[in-house]
Amino acid sequence: MKTLYSQGKEYVFPTSLPAIGWEIAYVYDSYMLGSGQIVFFLLILVTAACIFTFLIALLVEALYKPIREVVEDSMDSPEDGKPIDEFKILRQNSEKIKSLSKTLMEAMDENERLASQQQYRRLLFAPQPGGLTECGEEPEEDYSVVVVEFQPVNEGSSPSCIVILKQYVHEFTMNVPDMTFVDLDSTRCAMIVKSGNTDEILLQLYELLRYLTQKPEDETINQWIALSNPRNGLNRIWLAYQETLRILEYKHVYGHTNILTFEQIRSVDAVTYSYPLSMENRMVHCIVEGKEEALQIFDQLIRTNLVDKTLSIESIQSFVYVLIGTLGRVFQELKTSPEALLKEDINFMYLYEHWSDSVTITTLRHAIQDILTAVSCRGENNDEKLLNEMIRYIHTNYTDDIMLNDMADQFNISPKYCGILFKQLSGQNFKDYLNRYRIEKAKELLQKEHGIKIAELSLMVGFNSANSFIRVFGKYTGVSPKAYMESLKSSSIS
Predict the structure, then answer these.
(1) pTM over 0.85
(2) Contacts of 214 by beta carbon, 8 Å cutoff, 6+ apart
(3) Over the stretch 22-53, which tens digit does the pLDDT of each residue have?
(4) Rounded to an integer, what distance in angstroms lies between the CA atom of residue 125 and that of residue 356?
(5) Per residue in 89-115, pLDDT tens?
(6) Do the beta carbons of residue 404 and residue 418 sit within 8 Å?
(7) Which of 41, 99, 171, 409 is the most buried (most CB within 10 A)?
(8) CA-CA distance, 30 to 17, in Å (whole number)?
(9) What count of other Cβ atoms lies within 10 Å of the Cβ of residue 122?
């Protein structure tokens, strides 16, 4: 047994290593530490532990700081003394970020879808000579247009049924290659099909018809599907669309649920003039705005009815009468007369009596061209004067409950044309300019009289409702009238 023994002032502890046959003795100067040495070593240990703890605390603080800032920013109002579950808050924030990211992606997808819809609508409604590839397709492809029209059987049918059926059409087109859905209006939707094979498209449309007739909403809704002949190039899609409109003019000749092609209505169409109301409205609108597109529409009407068809004498007479009536409608929209606008008279009675003369069509076209020129010249010559008069009218009457109709009556023009003119001349619509001016006047009154009541102020600047005034004031200033008044008081005191 190995023991510790002393030799003089030293302590010896012998031991052995049997594996190698060695004997070892450990020699110590002293057997135990003194109290001073123990205290010294303890102080060193405590100091080292404190320093280590301090460094760990600094490291934790540095690492936790960004987490604390995120947590504090995202907390509503933590209760004093109540422990905070940072990980729970971070998880909640993570879920919020995921939700916001999903919402943002959905909004981006919706914006992209709307932009795409606008591009295709432009292709349907008007020729696009400068934008043949804006939808990403090659212009040499053949395109057909399909228009689906829904019509309630009776007035009691819910409009939501049509919305649902249009959604079914959209879902159907998503599963068909080279078929693009385009929403047109409350009763119609269209499909642009990149294909020149009419038989193949017809098979797809019969499948669509079967798909729609299986839906419960179909019971109270009549539906027609019109298919155009193929047209070559994106810039001719609008011609295919116009053809579908012509086809739908004869929808009541056939059953309430049917697929119609131009071949089916050719015999009827050959003896009937084609002049859809939508085309007339578009031409009138273009003339009033001074757009050259009006001449393109007029030429298309002449080509469709007098070149591509062999109409009866009665049909030609009716068609020319309708064109003359459209010209008269243009002057009604402009609230002017041929003498006032063109500086010469148009003998409408003579045109009606000589409807069969070829010069009558030429006269109508020249009249449209002259109106376009006059509208443009009137805008160039009287822009500043007319705008000043309109603005003066608003500044004079803003305290009254004036509307666009009132200003149109003041200048003896139609409300529609008045709105177009004001937008073109000022860059703002009438209501926006009027409200901005009223709010500026309200701010001036608040600066003069801090104690004015909101209800009185709203009436003084032309609002018939204090709630409307508060809403519009906040829209244009970013604060409520009361908050704006308080800020004025604070600035005057300081």
Answers:
(1) no
(2) none
(3) 777 766 665 555 677 777 878 888 888 888 88
(4) 31
(5) 667 777 877 777 777 777 666 666 667
(6) yes
(7) 409
(8) 24
(9) 16
